[in-house]
Amino acid sequence: MNQLIKKVATDLYSVQMKWVAWYLPIVFVVYVALLAFVAEPELRTMSLLTFTFQTATIFMLVCGILASFVFLPVYIKQGVTRKTYFKATILSSIALATTIIVITAFATWVLTFFKRYTTLFDEVVLSSLVVIEGNWFLISFAYVIVIFIYYLAGWLISLGFYRYGAAGGFGFIAISLVLIFLTDIIWNLNTPKPIVGIIPIGSFSINIGIAFILSLIIIAIVVTIVQKVTKDIAIVVE
């Protein structure tokens, strides 16, 4: 791998991990506080891993949006090619998604040892994923894939506005919403589904292998679009 790609990817990862260093502790504290003070049945069965995953979708979406508006002009100004920036962003976002879920999965595992001292976590279920039950590795891997797709969706949105202006940007928002909606349907998630209500689709579950394959297809589609848009994008350098 090109050393410059590694350097840029490491830089991007380091910057975004500084945000994670604030984000995760806040989410963890909020989770415990909600369990302690809010008597909501759905919340009380939610594990720290699932709770953090729900918020991580939005966090990664925002990080993806910043990928073009903040990072792209900076690196192009420093002489980094669009191709290098593209590859580095892909690598750093995968690492970011993996780190968030791995740290949270470990924290969730640690909390299981507190069950002998408190009843706070008695009703907690590891994951609400219909296609996976009780498998830590598969659940974590699925969560990594999903929040990575959210990052790509945010990146796609920011590229749309950056290159094509408001009209193109809103078009890319529509594309991203459809891709997010499909991802949520594939995994039968409870994350926001903006198109539900317009398209009447009932709840259903599919084979986990098919879910992974369909998710990888969605990733391939978004990555291809992002690559083509990034390739010839005009950079506004102040």
UniProtKB/TrEMBL annotation:
Keywords: Membrane, Transmembrane, Transmembrane helix. The keyword Zinc does not apply. The keyword DNA-binding does not apply. The chain crosses the membrane at residues 20-39, 51-76, 88-114, 134-157, 169-189, 195-226. This is ABC-2 family transporter protein.
